[in-house]
């Protein structure tokens, strides 16, 4: 009698619940429709910052170009470092989202004013914004790891971290005449979170920390986006000052 064929069972993933739910599917941007919606929220929030910082009476072209650079700064700089096509040229969805958000801000500025008055709506916009930013950071961190040859270690160390950091905050440094002014008073929150996130994701995925972790990339992405959303909500809704220690004035 012949031997019975051995049945190999798939390993059980005890943490599969992290990514097998509707919330994870949404923030990980698995569906194109969700991605496009989040891109609109991402560009709309950037537009609010651009229009608020624009000099009074600035031209239409100044605001438009400023918004394009703010939305896609990291997606322009990092691909140039890696010798690839910048995001706004490679993905037509970004220019469409930017132009749509710009038109709303330019022709219907009251929309942003109303959103600013509603913490719930503003929180939703922040979630959309941070979901896209997390996707950008992890995408370029992994792309840089694949493009850069290892030198000192068995994997490139600083290159992917730098690319991931810049991808999450590069718009703050464009146009180039800003120089180092954006960090003259210290690193802004998006810069800090992008650096921390890119560092942790890169070290987790490229070292033994991820050994035995099923779908390690998806789980790292989920933790990254939740970190971004948490910090974004704390800063965007002013919760930092509300929950911080109260100091008595003497």
Quick rundown:
The protein is mainly alpha-helical.
Topology:
Elements (H helix, E strand, L loop, with lengths): L21 H6 L4 H22 L6 H22 L5 H4 L2 H15 L2 H8 L1 H29 L10 H12 L19 H18 L9 H21 L2 H5 L7
Helix pairs in contact: 2-3, 2-5, 2-7, 3-5, 3-8, 7-8, 7-9, 7-10, 8-9, 9-10
Computed CA radius of gyration, to the nearest angstrom: 21 Å
Distance between the termini: 92 Å
SSE order, one letter for each helix or strand: HHHHHHHHHHH
Largest sheet: none
Task: Determine the number of helices (DSSP H or I, runs of at least 4 residues).
Answer: 11
Low-confidence stretches: 246-250
Quaternary state, please? Answer: single chain
Calculate the mean pLDDT score and round it: 90
What overall geometry do the principal axes of the alpha carbons give?
globular
Helix % is: 55-70%
> How many strand units?
0
Describe it.
Helix 2 (32-53) packs across helix 7 (119-147) and helix 3 packs antiparallel against helix 8 (158-169). The N and C termini lie far apart (92 Å). The chain has helices at 22-27, 32-53, 60-81, 87-90, 93-107, 110-117, 119-147, 158-169, 189-206, 216-236, 239-243. With 250 residues, it is mainly alpha-helical.
Comma- or semicolon-separated keywords:
globular, mainly alpha, disordered C terminus
